[in-house]
Give the backbone structure.
Amino acid sequence: MKKPFLSVLFLVLLTGLFAQDTLPDPDIPMNEKTKTIEFSKVVHEPGTKDELFKRCVYWLNSYYKSPTRVTQIRDVPTGKILGKHYFHLYTYDTVEHVNKKTAKVNYTFTIMFKDNRYKWQIDEMEVISTEKVPIEAMLNKNDPLYKKKWKSYLIQIADFVKNWSDNLEEKMKPEEVKQEKDDDW
């Protein structure tokens, strides 16, 4: 999962450095009530609330190196998992020809379960480099403090959330019922 993502990220960053203004604007969803960035989706998947919860715990254990440290809430009765984690943002160094970590994004995720559906949400995103910058500030191109590299950061953030959610949704699918073949003797 990570190798294809890093390859795509490398290409995006490479072209992004040479043509910052030609990169397409990423799709960053804004919650109109809170005026904050909030990625979310309701997914319909067969299973009881408890079954979906268990599948998600298996996903957490496969996705994160230390899932118990990442999750603050794992509440089966209410069907809620809340976690906090981070990922890195990169820029391409044209002198050394390598990707360099330039910032870190802290984020909060919430996954809630009901029978035959679940909802995931990623919010409270904050970019930390030499200073803390709320991602909402990176969307304002008219701000005198706006930096061109923020566009590539926003693309990386949107790509991270897409890969995160695709991975979650794939792991949340029920296992196919394995039918044993009767041996005909």
Remarks:
- Residues 6-19 have pLDDT under 50 and may be disordered.
- Residues 149-171 form the longest helix (23 residues).
